[in-house]
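Q: I'm building a small set of examples for a reading group on sequence design. Run inverse folding on the following structure and report the sequence directly after it, with nothing in between.
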């Protein structure tokens, strides 16, 4: 349904998207994953005919974005990073306005507005001014305008960014319900979003394609890398880091132990488990049984960076990398 081939987009000196290719099958939900500045929004703007590609091609339902933008736009619903809402319009009035712009006849418009109002659960605010809506409701209205002309393809740019946890769950549900009839590509910079909503994932970083895979394969590949940060201190006299490391390596289920930091007699390590193994309890026991103090033991979330490093086969550096990707500003 979507076919991107050798797509490149350059802004003056920045190469925002660098020769990427991927395909999205009809009816699939595909996650477009990448950190800030990866080129997600740029790719989506090309797909939705807002920006011409510098090189390469993109087609939607067989229509080229450069040659047949009109046909492409008919088939695409787009929720940009900031939904194009008019604060001084009421929800119903706005949806009617957008629907008419998108070519829905006056005979059909009432029915379509009622349908998307129901589908996106904005019925209780339909007479409210958009400017007075909460962020979550505004996002739903954004989705409603994206689907008003019943497009085959939905392009959603970070649809859950800036929402509270409850709104995130609601929006994910809504997207899942839309999935049956629509092909959906949604961008995000956090992995859980993809795990929750998508069947396939396209990962980009600094404009380049890193991987495309099914979400199942991706999470299987990642499962082995669950990491635990651990800090050990001596109760009497200095500790030999290599002895501690050896002891941790002997714990069942441990795949590798990375020394992190030595500070005033405290030793920090990052310990990775084998696929699907829980090692925290055994690690704690090993440390305590050896007569050492366990200062800290916590699971280190897989950051997007870790995933990229894994997928690109690069080695992790010895620097502490317990950071999570920062949530994007709303
Ligand atoms: N209008 C523009 N003019 C110049 N450079 C731009 C423009 N828009 C984006 N860029 C640059 O292109 C690159 C990709 O940006 P893009 O917005 O596509 O990334 P993104 O993956 O959507 O990031 P984010 O997660 O922050 O939304 C960045 O280096 C950005 O600075
Ligand atoms: Mg973006």
């Amino acid at each position: 349904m979507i076919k991107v081939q050798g797509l490149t987009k350059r802004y003056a000196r920045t190469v925002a998207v660098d020769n990427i290719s991927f395909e999205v099958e009809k009816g699939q939900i595909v996650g477009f994953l990448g950190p800030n500045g990866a080129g997600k929004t740029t790719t989506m703007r090309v797909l939705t005919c807002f920006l011409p590609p510098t090189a390469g091609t993109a087609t939607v339902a067989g229509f080229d974005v450069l040659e047949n933008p009109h046909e492409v736009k008919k088939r695409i619903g787009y929720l940009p990073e900031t939904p194009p809402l008019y604060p001084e319009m009421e929800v119903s009035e706005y949806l009617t306005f957008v629907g008419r712009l998108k070519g829905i006849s006056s005979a059909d418009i009432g029915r379509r507005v009622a349908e998307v109002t129901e589908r996106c659960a904005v019925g209780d605010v339909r007479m409210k001014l958009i400017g007075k809506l909460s962020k979550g409701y505004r996002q739903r209205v954004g989705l409603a305008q994206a689907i008003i002309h019943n497009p085959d393809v939905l392009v959603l740019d970070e649809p859950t960014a800036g929402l509270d946890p409850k709104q995130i769950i609601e929006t994910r549900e809504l997207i899942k319900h839309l999935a049956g009839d629509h092909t959906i590509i949604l961008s995000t910079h956090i992995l859980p979003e993809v795990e929750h909503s998508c069947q396939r994932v396209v990962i980009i970083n600094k404009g380049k394609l890193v991987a495309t895979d099914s979400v199942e394969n991706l999470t299987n590949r990642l499962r082995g890398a669950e990491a635990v940060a651990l800090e050990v201190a001596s109760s009497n006299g200095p500790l030999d880091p290599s002895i501690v490391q050896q002891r941790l390596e002997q714990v069942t289920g441990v795949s590798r132990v990375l020394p992190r930091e030595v500070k005033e007699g405290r030793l920090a390590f990052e310990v990775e488990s084998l696929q699907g193994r829980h090692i925290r309890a055994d690690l704690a026991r090993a440390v305590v049984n050896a007569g050492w103090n366990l200062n800290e033991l916590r699971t280190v979330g897989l950051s997007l960076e870790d995933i990229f490093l894994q997928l690109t086969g690069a080695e992790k550096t010895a620097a502490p990398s317990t950071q999570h990707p920062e949530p994007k500003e709303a």
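Residues 40-41, 81, 157 surround magnesium ion (ligand 2) (CB under 6 Å).
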